[in-house]
Amino acid sequence: MVDVSAKPATARRAVASALVRIGAEAYSQLERAALPKGDALATAKIAGIIAAKKTSELIPLCHGLLPEYVDVRFERRPPDSIRIVAEARVEGKTGVELEALTAASIAALTLYDMCKAVTKDIVIGPIQLEEKTGGKSDWRRTRTLPEQPRD
Predict the structure, then answer these.
(1) Interval 40-78: pLDDT, tens
(2) Which residue segments constitute the domains of the chain, with CATH numbers given?
(3) How much is the pTM?
(4) Which of 7, 98, 109, 139 is the most buried (most CB within 10 A)?
């Protein structure tokens, strides 16, 4: 684990995203609140927030941060996809990128779980950091990774 004890605490923020292609039928059921397991987006939001708070338990050598703010939002992309955007903030000595990435990843896996009764043909990805602020430098993604898998 990296020693951050001498670093000053500063405001940190990170945003990550994940794309989940669930297929047209699962998307339709999600829109009509008709998925067999219930409200997929509410469940995925809560799962993502919980995951952000447990990041250091999941990722070896990750510093244990207590995020002061976590949000998980969903962008519907008809006819078959959901884009997840997770944001985490903390006043700390190290960045909060892994917390945002973990929130987006677990929210995506939760959507998979909520939709798998309808279809197994679900694709997750890309999962990516969109931006981070605080610490030594700020960073923002300047190019978008492809959303559709290449054949």
Answers:
(1) 999 999 999 999 999 999 999 999 899 999 999 999 999
(2) 20-133 (3.30.70.640)
(3) 0.92
(4) 98
